[in-house]
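TA notes. Do not distribute before section.
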Amino acid sequence: MKVDLNLLSNLLSKRTGEIEKSISGTGYLARTVIGVGTFLLDNEGDTDLLTSKQLATFEKFLKPLLESRPARPGK
């Protein structure tokens, strides 16, 4: 899967409230989800490097948030 690194960076730095809202009541910690996102940023968005637990976290929380906003507004 190709991850838009600019969008991911924006999510982790400016939309952390959305991450906290998405994990509310799930038992997950925001720092865990943010850590997975940071790992992806550090590794050029290569989801193949994620462990199975990290991939599950990405798919459950980060992926839906990344898909909820267009990568480039107006396109």
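Switch to the second chain here.
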Amino acid sequence: MNENNNLNGSVLGNVTDGGIPPLSPAPNLTNQVGGIETLNGPVPSEAPTPEPIPAGPVNPTPVAPEPIVNPASNMESNGMPTPPSVPPIEPTPMPSTESPMQPDLGMPEPLPVTPEPAYTNPNSIGNNVGSMPGFESSSNIGTTPPISFEPEKQPVKKTNKMVFIIIILVVLAGVGFGTFYVLNYTDLLNNKVAKISIQPKNLEVNLGDELSKNNNDYATVTGTDISSCGVDTSNVDTSKVGEYKYTITCGETHREGTVTVVDNTVLEVALKTVYKSLNDEIEAREFAEVEDTSLTYEFVDEEAVKALLSGEPGTQTVKIRVTNANGKSTEVDGTLVILEYAVKGFITCNSKSSIVNGYKASVVVSERFGIADINGANSNDFANIAYEEHIFTFTDQNEYNKLLEDYQTNNTLTIDNITAGDIKFDDTNMTITFTETKDQKAVETQFGKENIAKYSTIKSHFETTLGYICTYKKAETTTPSTGSTTSSTQN
């Protein structure tokens, strides 16, 4: 079979006088029916007689357009040249045959056919007869090249695995960051759960006080009931001044607060009067009425106190600073009596108890006189120093507390028309003691000079005449180097 299966198309030539284009010789067609190729034979040498052409103008008979085929080469498939000119002939209809295998020597009658698409698959050029012509012949120059509607096959690009892995990692990182942000900085997932907020309070408590058991004293809580929260104060020691941490926990939320233990208590110091002779030595601790090793005593101006002892006899007030173990200190006034003679002791005479007008209390008047050997050994003379005390004992706690509050507010107190500068309170026994210092002239005027001349006259006058009960107590002597004290009682 001839490899060139292209159909020979109509030869481009001049139109005859009758307007009918000359027909080219019958193409050498190769038909394929049922997989068997048949070759149409050449046009028989005896051509049918052409019909006469009318003398006048005749409208050409419409002829169905033939399929566009490639122009035939001037050479037949057998290599023989085609005659240069062939008289035009009328197409002879091709008779219908029962078998497509039988050749028809006549020209085929035009049949209505569906026009082929004006494109040709380049892969089928040369294989399918009757397909769209290509550019095999120079006679095709000027014609529209076939257009392919088949999508172009793009070369498959190889995916870079490393780029793919990087993209996956970036996506995972973005998802992770988004999840973290949503969980920690938004309420998107917890919009139905109330957020617990705890605002701790910084507390201040006094030394030795008990801590509060009310949770509201420790923090302000929102989002839950504070009564369901727990407060841990196990690290707080109220027996020592300092700053401590406590923890309040509500569910899984906990916060720390601060408890500061301070010493706001009033430092109460009980002092006693100290008697010294001229040029004696003295220490501040000698003024403590009760020995307490947790307290320290010191003179505010020690040099000034020493100067008093080298001066004139008399009663002096000295400033003493008292400090406790927590560092809290206070300044108090101490009474220093400077005697011309050394005091051996004191005789104290107490009156009988009497009712105090306007109070649920009783009072005892106590007169105390200093004794010294002025006129010789064991002369027991009046040492020119005396004290008068009024001791009020209360049976009503409210009355006692009220008087104590008045004194702390006004720093002075008057009971039963008696006012004194030196006042002592005894909470245990509910007693208030007024003390007044008297010099020799005041005592001689009140009791008589002859009645207070010496120890024996004083005792006789108060016990026999006034009905008092008198006792004698040797004066406390202090050795500055050791600080030891001794005392005794004499009747």
